[in-house]
Amino acid sequence: MAKCELPKGILSLSGTLGNIVFKTYRRPDGTTVTRAYRKTAYERKTPITDKECAARSRFSRMAQEVARRIRQGDQRPKSLIWAEVKKTIDS
Q1: At what angle are helices 50-71 and 78-90 packed, to 10 degrees?
Q2: Which of 41, 50, 66, 69 has the highest CB neighbour count under 10 A?
Q3: DSSP annotation of 29
Q4: Residues 64/81, Cβ–Cβ less than 8 Å
Q5: Distance separating alpha carbons of residues 38 and 18, to the nearest angstrom
Q6: pTM more than 0.85
Q7: Could you tell me if 36 and 21 are in contact, meaning their C-beta atoms sit under 8 angstroms apart?
Q8: What whole-number distance in Å separates Cα of residue 6 and Cα of residue 23?
């Protein structure tokens, strides 16, 4: 692994640039280490199950309903609206 030092004034670097991911870690002694990784494409090896498909669909319906309520002016925190929508969908 190559050692890379950031220019003076840059304390940390994180994010992606193309298919390279940069991460800065803080060690317990206070020093920082920046690492670069090549992002690889993830390929699923098993097909999506019916349960996963149903869970995704349920999540989608809930998210759409929460967004609709917020657009209509509901000022409550999203977590409260989400909990209320979850109760109505589950019942």
Answers
A1: 130
A2: 66
A3: T
A4: no
A5: 9
A6: no
A7: yes
A8: 12
